[in-house]
Every structure is written in structure tokens, then in C-alpha cells.
Automatic annotation (TrEMBL):
Keywords (A to Z) from UniProt: Metal-binding, Zinc
Protein name in UniProt: DNA-3-methyladenine glycosylase I
GO MF assignments: DNA-3-methyladenine glycosylase activity; metal ion binding
PANTHER family for this protein: DNA-3-METHYLADENINE GLYCOSYLASE 1, DNA-3-METHYLADENINE GLYCOSYLASE I
InterPro entries membership: Adenine_glyco, DNA-3mA_glycosylase, DNA_glycosylase
SUPFAM superfamilies the record matches: DNA-glycosylase (SSF48150)
Native species: Thalassomonas viridans
Organism phylogeny: Bacteria, Pseudomonadati, Pseudomonadota, Gammaproteobacteria, Alteromonadales
Binding site for Zn(2+): 14, 27, 181, 185
Amino acid sequence: MTENFVGPDGGVRCRWCGGAPEFLEYHDNEWGFPVDDDRRLFEKLCLESFQSGLSWRTILAKRENFRAAFENFEIDKVAGFNEEDVERLLQDEGIVRHRGKIEAVINNAKRAQELVKEQGSLATFFWGYEAKTDSGIEPQTVSTSEESVALSKALKKMGWKFVGPTTVYAFMQAMGLVNDHARACVSRAKVEQSRSRFQRP
């Protein structure tokens, strides 16, 4: 079962948020709440690609460093990065120094610009892949979904990199495209309420 972590307030939460002290605030205030801000969507997809093969704790602990290194993940600024920036980032001990992933972020910023031009916003495109609410799948028991596979395929076709179905599913969980909080978790109802009020782009 996933719903067996009891927080300091006595509330039951998803098991994973008991894995590290910094997870609690992230779980309670960010994870699963719907997002339509392009900068935040782009940042999260980039950070999920950096997480590939690593733990989310590693990435969350370095998140502010990543923001500083990548101009707060402003799409137009990152799209303008060049080889000098890649070399600079490879020397930055505050982030994950992986050439392929760094170059993927720059590439993906350029692809994001194209997508915004075509769709109007990243949010419009991403929310077209929102998970079905009646899937019947127990929360946090799968690492991909029909929608994450489809979104991954669409992004790859447009030239995005490091956006496999598992990476995309983690992005969808975090950005509210699916409510994957455990059924007994105190945040599940809050996220559902937020999703019901949320204006889809």
C-alpha cells in the first residue's frame, strides 16, 4: 500500500513523502496540483529529464541551483544557449553535469518555442493529454500510462529529447495532469478540488 506515512499533523500521506524531510512540503504544496504556466511546465519536464537514472531527492535538493544555471528555465533565454554555455554548465557543481541532458534542455527549449508558436502555449498542448479520471488504476502502481506514452511519442516526433514515457508520466503526476495521490492521502481531495476549479487552457 502507498498510504502509510503519517505527517507531523497526524494526517495520512503518500508513503514516498516520508522518504526525506524536504519531500513533505513539496508533496503538500506542489505535487499533483494543476499547472498551466509554461515556464513551470518547461522547468519540470527538464528536471524530470535530469532525474532519469537518479533520485528525485537529488534533483529537488539542487533545484535552486538548476534555476540559477538555466536562467530560471525561461524558454527564450535557454533556447539562446550555445556551446560556451554547455561548457559552463559542465563545470557547475551545483547541478547534474551530464552533457547529453544539458544539451537536451537547450534543444527542448528550441522545440518549446516552436510548439508555443504552433499551439499558443505549452499548457494548451500538454493538457490535451490529461489522464482519464475513471481509469480505475490504483494510484502510484504504474510508471507509465496510455497518455504518457502518447505524449512522449508526440514530443519525440517533434524533436524533443530525454522525454521517454516514464519521464513524461512523472511530469504528468507532478503537474496535475493526473491525480496520483494515494486514496487515503490528505492531499488527494485538495488536488481533486483544485483540478475541478482549474480552467483547462
